[in-house]
Amino acid sequence: MDALVKLLTEKEFADVSVQEIADEATLNRATFYLHYPDKDALLQATTEARFRELIARRGLSFTDCDGALRAIALGVCDYLAETTSCPSQLSQMPLENSVISLVEGMFQEGASAHGVEPSAEVALRGTAVAWAIFGAARHWFLTTERLPAEEMAAKIEVMVKPMLLNASH
User: Fold this and answer.
1) Which of 48, 107, 109, 148 is most buried, by CB atoms within 10 Å?
2) Following CA atoms 137, 83, 47, 25 in sequence, which dihedral angle do they give, to the nearest 10 degrees?
3) What is the mean pLDDT of residues 22-35?
C-alpha cells in the first residue's frame, strides 16, 4: 500500500504497473498476486485501510446504530477532507466505488449483528444509504464554506437514518 501511494506521487495510476509496485515494495510480482488480483484491488484495499485507520484515529464509536451511522458519516467526511493532503492525483481519483463498497459492507455487518435477515431489499437499502452518505459528504467537501465535519455528520445522520431503519421492515 505504501509503495502504491509513493508511486502515485510520481505518476498517474494508469501508468503504474504491478511490476513497479512490487519493485517499490521489494516483493516479486508473484507475491503481489498472492495478495491482490490487480492494482485496482490494491487501491481498494488502500482506501479501506486508510478509511478504517481514520475512524480508529478519531475514536469513533460503533456502540449502537446511532453512533455507527454518525461515525460512518463523519468518517466519509474526514476521508474526503484528508485526500487533499494525499498525493494530488489520489485526491482526484474517483473514490466513490472504494468508499461506497466499504460503507455498504459496514451496513451488512451491522445488519447481520442485529439479526436482520439478508435480503435483496436490505442490500438495496444499504446501497442507497451508502450512496446518500457519500453524496452528501462529497457535496459538503466541495462546498467552499463548509460546516465542521461533526455538524455535517449529524445532518447526514438525520437525512439517512429513516432509510436505514426501514431496512429491517
Assistant:
1) 107
2) 180
3) 96
| pLDDT tens-place string over residues 68-87 | 888 888 888 888 887 655 54
Judged against a pLDDT cut of 70, whether residue 136 lies above it is answered with: yes
Can you give the pTM of this predicted structure?
0.74
Residue 28's pLDDT is what?
94
The domains found in the chain, sorted by start residue, are: 2-168 (1.10.357.10)
CA atoms within 13 A on the CB side of 160: 29
123 phi, psi to nearest 5 deg: -65, -40
HEC profile of the chain: CHHHHHHHCCCCHHHCCHHHHHHHCCCCHHHHHHHCCCHHHHHHHHHHHHHHHHHHHHCCCCCCHHHHHHHHHHHHHHHHHHHHHCCHHHHHCCCHHHHHHHHHHHHHHHHHHCCCCCCHHHHHHHHHHHHHHHHHHHHHHHCCCCCCHHHHHHHHHHHHHHHHHHHHC
Q: What is the pLDDT of residue 169?
A: 46
| Alpha carbon separation from 43 to 125, 132, 145 (Å, rounded) | 26, 23, 30
